[in-house]
Design brief:
Layout: E1 2-7, E2 12-15, E3 21-34, E4 40-51, E5 66-79, E6 85-98, H1 114-120, E7 124-125
Parallel strand pairs: 4-6
Antiparallel strand pairs: 1-3, 1-5, 2-3, 3-4, 5-6, 6-7
Length: about 140
Amino acid sequence: MNIIGRLTKNAEVSKTPNGKEVVNFSIAVNDSYKNKAGQRIEQTEFVDCSYWLTPKAVTFLVKGLLVELSGRISARAWLSSDGTAKAGLNFHTSAIKPLGKPAKQENGQSTQTSAEKQSANTAIVAGSDDDDLPF
């Protein structure tokens, strides 16, 4: 499954209790459609994402960056601290492809450093193998 969206904030690296590092981030996916009256309806969905392959991805996953993600969706359920049942979806990312530059800050400066710009030019793909191409 592929999705395209903009990062809502800078990615963060966290560690599981067994020491495995994961990059967590969220993207906003914009969509629009026309209702029966012919009016264009805009909607935004927010998708929580995780990337387990390398924590180095955090260096270029900055707020506003447009990315194409490949991976799979999983559902999770838990109890909050007050005992309320909660549920959510997570996109387990296997490949990240930057599609553009992050949105500019108010002062016109980009949110990327020069090292991040260099990293953003390369897509991160898990198990990329051209032998698997269907054509």
